[in-house]
Specification:
Elements lengths: L2 E5 L8 E5 L9 E11 L1 H8 L13 E9 L11 E5 L8 E5 L4 E2 L6 H21 L7 E4 L5 H12 L3 E6 L2 H8 L3 E6 L5 H8 L5 E6 L6 H5 L2 E9 L13 H5 L4 E3 L3 H4 L3 H16 L7 E6 L3 H9 L6 E5 L1
Helix pairs in contact: 2-3, 2-9
The chain binds NADP nicotinamide-adenine-dinucleotide phosphate.
Length: about 325
């Protein structure tokens, strides 16, 4: 019988149980996927703690890659043996799973299972942020918070490849070095330095057209002060906690700012959107413009250790569970 990590009660990392599961045959529109690797994302922590609530028992994990093992009725464009990957439908922390076929994309030969599991969610998020939410262009000076994180490292490299100059915040010197080696021109140790003052200095007082903020509570308000008049605040995560409510007039006071809170899944809901985002990601990775940095690998059954590391701010780049 295959095994999975299951949550029966929400809570700390100890609620992640290594459990045998029945998978069964794929229903109409589904395939059975034998996974080779699963990604670890901040969203998994929210599912585990219950801050994003799901019916229990629940198998976390919103990203994975593997081989199609069986096909249900009404599935087009996939066959047994295909190498595929996904970001989205939860249930990724399993050796074998059922999944809707229209959420899978075929993997090019140039992309390994580990790379795919490390990048599908964070990489398509980067694609959405800098190619759709704010199309980054040559000459832009932009701010990326948590620049050495999984999403952060991809954002830095991709934005630099588009000709932007990236300012990134990080908590340690080691993370600053890593971000620097991945496209981040100016790093700010936001644990020690005032990032608003640093952004003002680096931009010669001009400030920025856009800020990409995944940190949330600790950075949100001061990020608004990094924006020039009519700049765009992109708050896309809350690693430090949820943002306190704000009143819209604050945006006027800070310079007629724009504010958006995007979620990847709303941008890849339609099949053609998913394919377009995934294909752009595959292209920048296959071309070498974006390198997927897997800095933590754990066996699937040790998913709790991966969660502890992510929560402790002890990770950089992407984290993968190997199967
Ligand atoms: N909207 C979307 O569709 C979408 C998609 C993907 C990810 N996200 C969000 O983006 C964020 C980053 O996700 P990720 O998977 O790429 O994680 P990550 O950035 O690799 O890890 C989180 C990083 O946040 C920083 N951080 C700052 N304050 C923190 C705190 N109090 N506790 C823990 N970490 C803190 C840490 O970097 P430093 O040590 O350098 O500060 C940490 O390494 C998450 O909030 C996630 O939910 C959103």
């Amino acid at each position: 019988m295959p095994y999975a990590i299951q949550i029966r009660l929400t809570g700390g990392p100890e609620v992640l149980n290594w459990t045998p599961i029945k998978v069964g045959e794929p229903g109409s529109g589904q395939v059975r996927l034998r996974q080779a690797a699963a990604g670890v994302n901040y969203m998994d922590l929210y599912h585990r703690t219950g801050s994003y609530s799901e019916p229990l028992p629940f198998i976390p994990g919103v990203e994975g890659a593997g081989i199609v093992e069986a096909i249900g009725q009404a599935v087009r464009g996939l066959k047994v043996g295909d190498r595929v990957a996904y970001a989205g439908p939860a249930g990724g922390y399993s050796e074998v799973r059922l999944i809707e076929a229209d959420r899978l994309v075929r993997l090019p030969d140039a992309i390994s299972f580990d790379q795919a599991a490390a990048m599908m969610l964070q990489g398509m998020t980067a694609q959405v942020l800098i190619r759709q939410v704010y199309p980054v262009k040559a000459g832009d000076l932009i701010l990326v918070h948590a620049a050495a994180g999984g999403t952060g490292l991809i954002l830095c490299q991709w934005a630099a490849a588009l000709g932007a100059t990236v300012i990134g915040t990080v908590s340690t010197e080691a993370k600053a070095e890593l971000a620097h080696a991945h496209g981040c021109k100016h790093s700010i140790l936001y644990s020690k330095q005032d990032f608003v003052a640093e952004v003002s200095r680096i931009s010669g007082g001009e400030k920025l057209p856009v800020v990409f903020d995944s940190v949330g509570k600790d950075t949100f308000l001061r990020s608004l002060d990094c924006l020039r008049s009519r700049g765009l605040m992109v708050t896309f995560g809350q690693s430090s906690g949820p943002i306190d409510p704000i009143v819209p007039v604050l945006l006027r006071e800070k310079g007629s700012l724009f504010l958006t809170r995007p979620l990847l899944f709303h941008y890849i809901a339609r099949r053609e959107e998913l394919e377009s985002s995934a294909n752009e990601l595959f292209d920048v990775v296959a071309s070498g413009k974006v390198r997927i940095k897997i800095n933590q690998r754990f066996a699937l059954k040790d998913a709790a250790d991966a969660h502890k590391a992510l929560e402790a701010r002890a990770t950089s780049g992407s984290t993968v569970l190997t199967i």
